[in-house]
Prior knowledge:
Blueprint: E1 4-8, E2 18-24, H1 31-39, E3 47-52, H2 59-64, E4 71-76, H3 82-92, E5 97-101, E6 106-107, H4 111-118, E7 124-131, H5 157-166, E8 176-179, H6 180-186, H7 197-207, E9 211-221, H8 236-259
Helix pairs in contact: 5-7, 5-8, 7-8
Amino acid sequence: MTDSTPVSDPAPAGPVTVSVAMATYNGASYVEEQLASILAELGPCDEVVVVDDASTDDTVERLARVEDPRVRLVRADVNQGYVRAFEQALGLARGEVVLLADQDDVWVPGRVSVLTKALESHQVVASNLATLGGADGIPGPFGRNDWRLRSRDEARHVLNVLGIWAGLRPYYGCAMGVRRDALAMALPFPHYLDESHDLWLALYGNLAGSISHVETRTVRRRIHDANATPVSPRGLLAVLRSRLLLLRATLHLRSRLRRR
């Protein structure tokens, strides 16, 4: 992990219940709107941990201007990629519940209460999402106009793992959360994981038999050309590499769980 410089790291006013882990990179156009929607959902002792991945625009300056002691801002000295930035943010989080956030979306009111409720009985939670300024449904494979998770599938762990391998389960990090006991097993990310940190967490939740599918749409996803998750289909070689990476990640997580 690269060196990083704290820009703001206030001491918590009390025990932190909810942490939000956010990674930013050249997100100046959208990050203030997203951060405002997050802070509106949090209590006075909650926190937002932002790891900026060496942005070259004024993302850090915009975040530093937010006068809210709940925001903890750390700037990486060199670009490390979004997976490592999220890993660092998750590792710095102090809350018993940690919710993931992208830099360019908008949270739906009530998101925190819905996800924290689900995490009372599950280690990992994944909700549905909508598009920002567009239709509620998000496009999916095979021409789906409303690609979403179903609560009835949350206990079908083997099918979910197979669905992850096949690219048929819409586990998006921006709509996910984890409990601290899950992070104790899911971190650190393996060195070869250079994409799909969200699918790593989804694999963990399914392999551990403890994942909740929340059908509520808790975040509005902004779709644009710079999304980390590709909007258009990838080439065959990229898809095959991704599937092999997920298979390797599954075996890695099974080994961790067995050692526990």
